[in-house]
Amino acid sequence: xxKFLALTLxxxxxxxxLAGCGQKAPAxxxxxxxxxxxxxxxxxxxxxxDILNVAKEVLAEEGITLEVVEFNDYIQPNMATESxxxxxxxxxxxxxxxxxxxxxxxxxxxxxxxxxxxxxLYPGKTATIAELASGAKIAVSNDPSNEARALNLLExxxxxxxxxxxxxKATKLDIVENPKNIEIVEMEAAQLPSALSSVDxxxxxxxxxxxxxxxxxxxxxxxxxxxxxxxxxYANILVVKEGNENDANVQALIKALKSDKxxxxxxxxxxxxxxxxx
Length: 278
What we know:
alpha/beta
């Protein structure tokens, strides 16, 4: 009986040992099922996804796979980053990120400024500022940070005047002078290019203008000055969830996005509509 018990215990021990040997230990910085050499990044299509695809070539040389997940709005990329569906996102500027975190109790961090997109005022039914009739309609983005930016551009062109000191926190309620009684039409940023046929003008975000084939240099009536306060505050950034700032793949992505290859691509492709900040 004792011999039988001893044999049984020995068999159990061996089986447990074999089972343990058959399991792979999680890789450092990842998991048994995860690939630590792959990074998934959310982006809006142009120019962000296009720029990421150039960085993808740089990362491939280091054995890192970059998967670009495209979205057509400004909310899902941040929520996907917060949930961990993606490691990072590249589509927004600092002011929008700060507003989003405050409104949604998210924990997203800016880890690198990559480029700046000058806002442009584009003609719709009316070709020039001088031709704007009383009651003309000008469309702007409906999210707070981008609307303020649009209103400041309209003020710089003498179309409206804002209350003193509101700066880049301006809303429609801060318009104190409106000599032509311009109607400010708020809408989703992605809809601005297609709205040009139904409004007199529109102030359009750089990425959506590019996606619609519009050039701030060739098509815009007016654009933000590259030395303006907006240029500094509205740098387009790479964003991660708090705690992932020092992730090795994130750091490799930052280096790739700031590479000579990406800078040369931006300068050769966007004709001033996208300005590298490195």
